[in-house]
User: Fold this.
Amino acid sequence: MTADSQLKPQSLPQHVAIIMDGNGRWAQRQGKPRVWGHKKGVEAVRRSVSFCRELGISSLTLFAFSSENWRRPEEEVSTLMQLFLMVLQSEVKTLHKHNVRLKIVGDLSAFSDKLKANIAKAEQLTAANTAMTLNIAANYGGRWDMVNAARCLATQVQNGELTVADINEHTFAAQVQMSEQPELDLLIRTGGDVRISNFLLWQAAYAELWFTDTLWPDFDQQVFSEAIAAFVNRERRFGCTGEQIRQLATLGKG
Assistant:
């Protein structure tokens, strides 16, 4: 089998989500502060976005900051917020240049006015881009997402726009985050833990799950391609390899 003869775009996942775990441990192994790991993790984000763009994957969702992360030490939380703002400001032009739409999903009410303004500006700049969508889950929790969807439906019923009998999986799914995008196909977690940590609980109902011990700053094209190959093998039974996935990405550049 060659990558171009049997591995077609429809064989690949159209929506991939990643729980980016292991930044702190990576930094500690280097004898550096945890914050150093978060900064190095930004490079892994760039690699992942680029790889998805080359493969033609239409949606990539990254778990940047969970609703539970507020419990971390105040200094680390503050640094994460500053890093988030800095990356927004520095990376959005590059995303726009490569026709990538940026969406921030989660409860933004807890963020500073400055951060919310920058989020709105970045989303507005990239809103019409069509090559792929990069979703950054920030102050996101799967339970929050589902409760928020239920609240939206309840409001519609209260306003007479919907009846209780109208509520079903379809109407509920329309209210959760990223409802306008392809259904989640593949959920990856780095860092060695084997759980989904309140991430995309509704969206991951039928997703393939793939776990790796690789810490997020070390997550590169080779590891990502192994995850994609595992998905293709489970779904299509092609018996492909990570090398063939990388070959397909190379073909996509041409």
